[in-house]
Description:
Layout: E1 2-6, H1 13-21, E2 24-28, H2 37-46, E3 49-52, E4 70-74, E5 92-95, H3 102-117, H4 120-127, E6 147-151, H5 155-166, E7 170-174, E8 190-191, H6 194-200, E9 203-206, H7 220-223, E10 231-234, H8 243-252, E11 257-261, E12 278-281, H9 289-311
Parallel strand pairs: 1-2, 1-3, 3-4, 4-5, 6-7, 6-9, 7-8, 9-10, 10-11, 11-12
Amino acid sequence: MLKAYCIFNDFNKKAYEILKNVGIVLEISKTGIRPNKSQLIELLKKYDILIIGAKEKITKDMLNGIKEKRIIATLSVGLDHIEEELFNSNRIKIINCPKSNVISVAEHIFSLILALNKRIIEANDISYTTGDKLGLSQKSEEISNKTLGVIGAGNISSEVIKIANAFNMKICCNTLHPEKHVDLKKYNVEFLDLNVLLSTSDIITVNIPLNKQNRNLISKEKISLIKKTATFINTSRAEIVDIEELINYAKENKTFYVGLDIDVDKYKKVLNQKMNNVIITPHIAGVTKEAINRMDIELANNIKDYLNLDNHQ
């Protein structure tokens, strides 16, 4: 019988039952207080399965001396908080939930796009002060028939493209393997080189995981290619984009709009003043009530499927 531990105290009851039905004894944190490194090491020693989140950094040294097989199950899409070397270990299985927050993130992307192009935040502020709509720094714009540049062609990008199609947007996409995404052709997606996409799109959204290859992908040089009247959205890991340069570009060009969903603690020096053309949310795109419940259930099912597969090999 496998023993599991969840660091969160609000794990979904249905997910709990899924694990129970395959013989897993799951202990759930009573407090929900996130464990530190030394506490994580002790949990890894004690439990066969450890359920964590994206804030828990797991490195290979944390498993030193542990000879038994371990499952590290993370309630996240991204896996950059887990050291890459662990993915090649025969003793460690990494399980995530890549599908659960797709709708949540895609909706958040369009919330930022619409809020920026319709000047919602600025208009709200004006309503509580002068009430004079002539005070808007820029008039609102429609997104219909605008060109949307989507960086990445995974689950989130596919949902974004589906929504964009309803807005009658012209859609282009940059991905390493366009031949694997011919299904997007039904939305009239045009696959473009990254530089071409950046220089021709009216609205750009970044939807790719962080890895060694794409860290700082949207560099200072790439940012300089973007139209000064464009809208740039990033709900992926902040490290994919040169955030400081992006904000500077927005400071220099008041018609350039930025929407970011990032861990703001790392960028307090950069985000030191409120700007009409920048909206920041504190990494909440994928954590709607519905998405959290789906993530718990998806993770439990993925653990169950892995154990069933492993037992039959």
